[in-house]
């Protein structure tokens, strides 16, 4: 018992150190967004603003068509999330409940894609989306992300844990495959649906590289590209940039606070990767 106490103290101290390492820069970032531009780099540096102001937020919202970027990102994130859930659930169900040699080979191919960095397939992905006529459109941003190996694998692993007797009983009662999937399997997989929805929304909301490649018209820009466009070639309006960055984080923070119990209970044993 005496030996366990120092271990707990050191473990707790290490955790608080990690919290401070992650938390202090975020706190400094949030408080700096309320500082006027002249105070951001004044010496000595201060954590708390001496003259708090929200001018950075208002200027970011009014000067850079922020509402359009916000709306475009919301369309991309919501539509991609809904389609991702449907495609991943149906694909995961097929891979879990049907046995065939080519389905097993297909499963291995899907898992193999998790080992490829996303940047590796940017070039062929761009050619396909361009040939489909989706270049410079929000549909072109959504299309490549509607099915993910992570989502498919999460649903497959969950559906494997559902007893086959449940489906057999439904079939004996006259339920078809589609009806059994919608009325039995989908309600059972609600925790997976919520977890994937939160993760997919976060991925699409923070996505920067692919929208930067596929979008050229400023009217179609998403929020991350819009925030990056605030950075000028010769100077940076740091006050506006900080305000825009904080505004872009608000939807994710709200969603996390509402659905955090699903995030905390998520089954991460599958090894998640976008």
UniProtKB/TrEMBL annotation:
The keyword Transmembrane applies. Keywords: Cell membrane, Membrane, Transmembrane, Transmembrane helix, Transport. Pfam families: BPD_transp_1 (PF00528). InterPro entries: MetI-like, MetI-like_sf. Residues 70-259 form the ABC transmembrane type-1 domain. The chain crosses the membrane at residues 9-31, 74-96, 108-129, 141-160, 181-203, 238-259. It comes from the Bacteria. It is a multi-pass membrane protein. It is found in: Cell membrane. Belongs to the binding-protein-dependent transport system permease family. This is Carbohydrate ABC transporter permease.
């Amino acid at each position: 018992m005496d030996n366990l106490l120092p271990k707990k103290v050191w473990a707790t101290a290490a955790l608080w150190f990690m919290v401070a390492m992650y938390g202090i820069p975020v706190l400094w970032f949030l408080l700096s967004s309320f500082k006027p531009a002249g105070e951001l780099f004044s010496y000595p540096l201060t954590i708390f603003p001496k003259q708090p102001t929200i001018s950075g937020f208002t200027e970011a919202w009014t000067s850079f068509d922020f509402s359009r970027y916000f709306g475009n990102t919301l369309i991309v994130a919501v539509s991609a999330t809904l389609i991702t859930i449907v495609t991943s659930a149906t694909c995961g169900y097929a891979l879990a409940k049907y046995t065939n040699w080519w389905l097993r080979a297909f499963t291995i191919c899907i898992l193999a894609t998790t080992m490829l960095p996303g940047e590796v397939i940017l070039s062929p992905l761009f050619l396909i989306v361009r040939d489909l006529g989706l270049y410079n459109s929000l549909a072109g941003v959504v299309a490549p992300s509607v099915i993910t190996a992570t989502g498919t694998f999460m649903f497959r692993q969950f559906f494997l844990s559902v007893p086959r007797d449940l489906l057999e009983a439904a079939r004996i009662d006259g339920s078809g495959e589609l009806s059994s999937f919608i009325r039995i399997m989908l309600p059972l997989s609600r925790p997976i649906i919520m977890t994937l929805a939160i993760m997919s929304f976060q991925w699409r909301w923070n996505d920067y590289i692919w929208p930067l490649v596929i979008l050229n018209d400023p009217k179609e820009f998403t929020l991350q590209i819009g925030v990056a466009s605030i950075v000028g070639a010769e100077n940076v309006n740091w006050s506006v940039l900080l305000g825009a960055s904080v505004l872009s984080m608000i939807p994710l923070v709200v969603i996390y606070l509402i659905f955090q119990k699903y995030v905390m209970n998520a089954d991460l044993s599958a090894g998640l990767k976008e």
